[in-house]
Amino acid sequence: MKRLTAWIWAAALSLSVCSGAAASGRDLVVATITIVDGGPATVIHAASKLSSLEGASISNEDIIETSSTTSVLRLEFNGGLTLDLGPSSRVMVKPGPAAGEAPVAYLLDGWAKLSVSQSLAGKAVLTSPALDVTAVDRDLVLHVKGGESELFAESGGVQVQLLGKHGKASPTNSSTKVDRGNFMARHQDGTVDVLPRPGQAFVQSVPRAFMDTLPSRLALFAGKDLRLEPAGRLNYEDTQAWLNAEPRIRTRFLTRWKPLLQDEAFRRALTAQLSLHPEWQPVLYPPKPHVNEAVKP
To answer: Is the distance from CB of 54 to CB of 35 less than 8 angstroms?
Structure first.
């Protein structure tokens, strides 16, 4: 009976999250996957785990995670903006209340190359745990690993907002301009170096695909309705890095991933790690409603 009950819960959960994704994603499309080269990548839409596919649409707040063997995954946005992801990278597309007002993406870790057209120069925003790019003139490369961040202003100036604890603006020297061709390193202890050019270690580790000029492929998929295929159940291990992210990112999952609590394994794992994401305490253990005693006549 326990196995049957667990299967029923799993089937109901899968149906609810997939139908929710289909209902909400169509009106919120913000980008298209136009290149997936090398190993596979995963898309997390709402509470569904899906396999990446060239030509498939991406909605705001979708999460894309590349594998260690992915050479490059490209997202193309309307208006001439592209975002390339390297291997072992995690990014949320357009995190925010409204797609038009949100940053282009939030890079949790890994490699990203952001390229903007001349008409969008100075307007694109790319966010991450230790720094936010508030303006970019052309192309930039951002690498995030643990508490370290590296930024290369490849072909235009970049304006950077340095962040302190919990994603808040650093109280001192928070805004930094990185000129074209310059390199900035934000170290785990909070110190920052701005150099006239990137070091040899950075150059050797940059994904090779970032060094190539790849033409737009967006027109190839115009008018095609390519859908992402399910890639298994979304479990705690799939979500852990995001649940443990800084508060400005992880709190948005309280509603989005609440249906996953119907999965007993997910609920147990979340409870065991509750100290890392305490905002889930009232969701896991909602307070009992206050009942007023009847007033006696």
So the answer is: yes
